[in-house]
Design goal:
It contains nine helices and six strands, in the order αααββαββββααααα. With 321 residues, it is α+β, with helices and mostly antiparallel strands. The chain has two domains: 6-153, PAS domain (Beta-Lactamase, 2-Layer Sandwich), CATH 3.30.450.20; 158-320, no CATH class. It is found in: Cell membrane.
Length: 321
């Protein structure tokens, strides 16, 4: 399963916006101290490290003077050590977080934006610190990794660490499925060559092509299963907390099975027609009925699942309003 795309992150942010803002406001309110403006870079790093032990989604800390000029280097969080320690002397007076904080005495939080340092969606939480005489001493800014914050709030942080292992296992399974599909394609090619060497006018020759079709059908079903597994579990992001993601995966797997079963029924009907004995016609009818029943069950599942999700969304919107 891949990481969240920017669209996924924005959607999740919209769902949990109030909780995220409340959390960040409480963190910065407790963490901010006017003494930080007298601390050196090492002291700031140690102080931020202690905060990151509890809140690992914090990516950067830096200080601004009263005019919005950065007076400290970027202090990276414990899990973002690759971030460059630059920034001192940069003019941040035009940035949204400075403009918002300049007109407020409480914590202000920006809307999501693309970080110029990490190239990931982030939020900036800023608080203005005043001198004893009421003048502005400066601003403390915390940059927050938005995707990591959402994972922290939804209890998904630990599972993310296992994602590479899950992907590796799924990738091995997909390689195995594709290998079997290639083997079946080879057997289909070999069978096709034998058909070309057989007298097609004989009764035996009429049935030989069905061996090729059977190999190709199995290869199609197995390849489609491997492709679905690769897309759903390795390449695409899947929100396991949202029922629509599970419904999408189940629907794709069931659809692949229905296609394979339907083709098998069609082959049995053709065999019966060629033999003119009706030997397989009853079995073919039962397989067609089974495929139709699977299709009906899938339709009911998709319909009920979408209705349930719509009701949950309606209830959530009603609570928010």
């Amino acid at each position: 399963m891949s990481k969240m795309s920017h669209i996924n992150v924005i959607e999740k942010y919209d769902e949990h916006r109030d909780a995220i803002h409340h959390l960040l406001s409480s963190i910065l309110s407790c963490f901010a101290d006017a003494k930080m403006f007298e601390q050196n870079q090492q002291e700031l790093s140690e102080q931020l490290k202690s905060l990151c032990d509890y809140y690992p989604f914090i990516s950067l800390l830096y200080l601004l003077d009263a005019k919005g000029k950065q007076i400290s280097m970027n202090v990276p969080g414990s899990y973002f050590k690759h971030s460059p320690q630059t920034g001192r002397g940069f003019d941040r007076s035009k940035r949204p977080y400075y403009l918002l904080a300049a007109n407020s005495d409480s914590v202000v939080i920006t809307e999501p934006y693309l970080s110029s340092v990490r190239r990931e969606l982030c939020l900036s939480a800023t608080i203005k610190m005043n001198n004893d005489d009421g003048t502005t001493k400066g601003y403390i800014v915390l940059d927050i990794d938005l995707a990591a914050t959402i994972s922290f709030l939804t209890g998904d942080s630990k599972r993310i660490h296992f994602d590479p292992y899950f992907k590796a296992v799924y990738s091995l399974i997909v390689v195995g499925l594709f290998s079997v599909a290639l083997l079946l394609l080879y057997l289909a090619g070999k069978e096709c060559w034998e058909v070309l060497q057989t007298l097609l006018s004989s009764e035996e020759g009429k049935l030989l092509p069905f061996g090729v079709v059977i190999y190709l059908t199995l290869a199609l079903a197995i390849f489609d299963l491997g492709k679905t597994t690769l897309e759903e579990e390795v390449l695409l992001y899947k929100d396991i907390l949202r029922h629509s993601s599970t419904r999408r995966t189940i629907t794709r797997f069931i659809a692949a099975i229905i296609i394979a079963v339907s083709i098998e029924a069609l082959l049995m009907i053709f065999k019966s027609a060629l033999k003119e004995s009706g030997e397989y016609i009853i079995q073919a009818v039962w397989i067609i009925l089974a495929a139709g029943f699977l299709l009906l069950c899938m339709a009911v599942y998709v319909y009920l699942g979408s209705k349930a999700e719509a009701l949950l969304l309606k209830r959530k919107n009603h609570k928010d309003s």
